[in-house]
Backbone:
DNA sequence: CTCCAGGTTGCGT
DNA sequence: ACGCAACATGGA
């Protein structure tokens, strides 16, 4: 795991738009298609071939609403709100957010090379050429989403997230639509279990969310500490030590937030179903079978998982 | 009605 | 270390 560098961008003359180059393989359409797939998603909105999302930028009290458009070789990010030229820090923050969101810092060519010769992955790289693991750059959001999604079906998980976000988050309103910011850990840390069970989260998940919020609010748990832990396994141990975070959630977060290409949520039932489907099995694979099938994915388990998920979701 | 969902904990062998 | 009930509710 490497520490992130400022992602390069070029700014337009009006100071409201930036352009990022994307490394090959990249397809904006594939990534937009992924972002469009979940009707219940509350953290972004796909409109007219673009995706809109509210983000926080440094030195501003007001959240920004950005619109991301793209082509085969890059992305364009426009500030819709506030509608004025942006400070360089805000432009850089948007560039870095998008680079994390679309995983522009990982070079996928080695994954494509190994996938070409892999019976399970070969069909996926043809169908989804240029798809990147769409991320969840905010650590608290990634952990909450992992916890909320534990052991329930995906549509219900989206419903619970929406209730949580719309109750405890803040919104930027634009064109009559609300664009939500994820609730702050400082806010969630002070909630009671009852305030979350009202939303139909289980009392256990409510405890987990409040606990994780506290760890992040007090600075005990940060992305920087996870990145500095000393590799994937050390970061995983750090996460699994937290109540409510098991191996699945830890690897899910390492994959979608810390951008570890070798994170591997091997217990994931969606992965099991995808393998059953693509390998034309009449039952789900055992853990040992998955270990055998994934032996050649070494270093790219996260991408293999994400591409296989795409077959089902 | 039954079974399964993008699992984890805590307690029992 | 490994097995297993409990958690709780929605959707097929």
Residues:
């Amino acid at each position: 795991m490497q520490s992130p560098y400022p992602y390069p961008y070029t700014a337009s003359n009006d100071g409201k738009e930036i352009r990022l180059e994307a490394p090959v393989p990249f397809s904006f359409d594939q990534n937009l298609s992924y972002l469009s797939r979940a009707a219940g998603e509350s953290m972004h909105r796909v409109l007219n071939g673009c995706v809109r999302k509210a983000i926080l930028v440094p030195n501003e009290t007001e959240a920004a609403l950005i619109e991301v458009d793209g082509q085969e070789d890059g992305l364009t990010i426009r500030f819709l709100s506030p509608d004025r030229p942006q400070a360089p820090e805000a432009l850089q923050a948007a560039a870095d957010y998008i680079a994390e969101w679309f995983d522009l810092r990982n070079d996928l060519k080695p994954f494509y090379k190994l996938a070409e010769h892999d019976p399970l992955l070969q069909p996926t790289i043809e169908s989804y050429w240029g798809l990147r693991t769409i991320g969840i750059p905010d650590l608290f959001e990634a952990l909450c989403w992992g916890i909320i999604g534990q052991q329930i079906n995906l549509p219900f998980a989206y419903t619970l997230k929406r209730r949580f976000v719309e109750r405890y988050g803040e919104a930027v309103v634009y064109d009559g639509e609300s664009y939500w910011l994820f609730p702050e850990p400082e806010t969630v840390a002070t909630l009671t279990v009852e305030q979350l069970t009202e939303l139909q989260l289980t009392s256990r998940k409510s405890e987990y969310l409040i606990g994780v919020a506290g760890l992040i609010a007090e600075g005990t748990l940060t992305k920087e500490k996870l990145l500095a832990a000393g590799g994937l396994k050390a970061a995983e141990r750090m996460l699994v030590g937290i109540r409510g975070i098991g191996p699945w959630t830890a690897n899910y977060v390492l994959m979608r937030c810390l951008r570890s290409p070798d994170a591997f949520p091997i217990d994931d039932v969606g992965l099991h179903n995808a393998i059953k489907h693509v390998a034309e099995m009449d039952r789900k694979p055992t853990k040992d079978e998955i270990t055998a099938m994934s032996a050649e994915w070494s270093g790219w388990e996260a991408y293999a998982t994400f591409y296989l998920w795409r077959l089902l979701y």
Summary: Residues 151-153, 155-156, 159, 200-205 of chain A lie near DNA strand C (CB under 10 Å from a C1').
